[in-house]
TrEMBL record:
GO terms for biological process: polysaccharide catabolic process. Gene3D superfamilies: Glycosidases (3.20.20.80). This is Glycoside hydrolase family 5 domain-containing protein. Keywords: Glycosidase, Hydrolase, Signal.
Amino acid sequence: MLTKTLRYALVSSLALFGNAGTSPAFPFSRSGTDIVDGSGNKMDLACVNWPGHMEVNLPEGLQHQTMQDIVDKIASSGAYNCVRLTYAVELFSKSNMTARESFEQADVDVDMTGFIDDVTQHNPNVIDMKLPEVFQKLAITLGEAGISTIMSNHISKAGWCCSEDDGNGWFNDVYFNVQEWNDSLASMAKLMIGIPSVIGLDLRNELRNSLGLSRSTQVSEFMKYTPEAIRSIQSTNPAVLTLVSGLSYDNDLKFIDEADASERAEFDSVLSEFSSKIIFEGHIYSWSPFGDVPIDGADCSSLSFDDMLGWSYKNGFPMILSEIGWNIDSYAGDDKTWINCVRDFILDHNLSHAMWLLGGDYYARDGTLNHPDSFGLLVDDWSEWKDEDVLAKNMEMKWMQSAVEEKE
């Protein structure tokens, strides 16, 4: 039996290209709790999140660097084989708008027109592209560099995510029009047809009880609306995986077993119909409600990762932790044991993962242009990794091991 250390070394050596040690064949699918490529080789996804869901409806960072340079930086790092690229439903209501027009008309309290010259300087071929075409171009560019892409339906009205009162949290919330959401899933699935490196689309980022519903009503409405959304993706682009998230900011999958048989009937039918294409996702941060963060070398037994997120692998489905991360700018001592616990959870249950987040700043956030993000792996102008040691922590899951060892 492999020790945890040996399993760590084995997973690290295989993370980029699966067990075959070669470039993956597309499309990807599910085989039991594994994600496999088109040749049946097990794939361990090591992803990084690249935001594109803010008010300008463009992938971040293009005011600082060329798209190709950012992609090359990801590919050459050796840490990642996948990008989770976020977008807003609003992207498709503005599908005829160009990047230039979006900077001119963005729904923010600051003047963003200065970015037009910046993006024109670094990405002259992008500035007059229509917004969805920019996402398509980025997915193609990532694929050409050997990086797979998961498209994340992050929010409805473009902007910062997430809070209980942003109007985007739950089905039929202020901005969460269910039909528009389904249409956007189908539109993104269609947009990515013919780009084999786009391996999956998720249904929705961080559903949350923004309407103050009872637990039973949340479960019932999830079962009501989710099957149609899965069909929207799979009927449009059968090649891609569909990622299904849970409740409470993607911290909870145990609710699935709380639905009664009649509520679950259609959900179970869809899982069966598209069984080779369904995977589940969860999010883990130190503030997530999995129990108190262990400190000073305490063990992880008090944390409820398995109880809250384990429904997926306990029922034979793969899972990706599609957001994990920490404040890179002020790495706290109590993160040491927490990172160790997340590492063990990933290794024990054979999970893929995605770091939040790539970029050093946003075009605008909270009324500030070029707003920095302390969780970003790149410096504010996206020109280099903030810290080579931080990058090393991300190398094929080594970020978990070396982050722990560094603090020993």
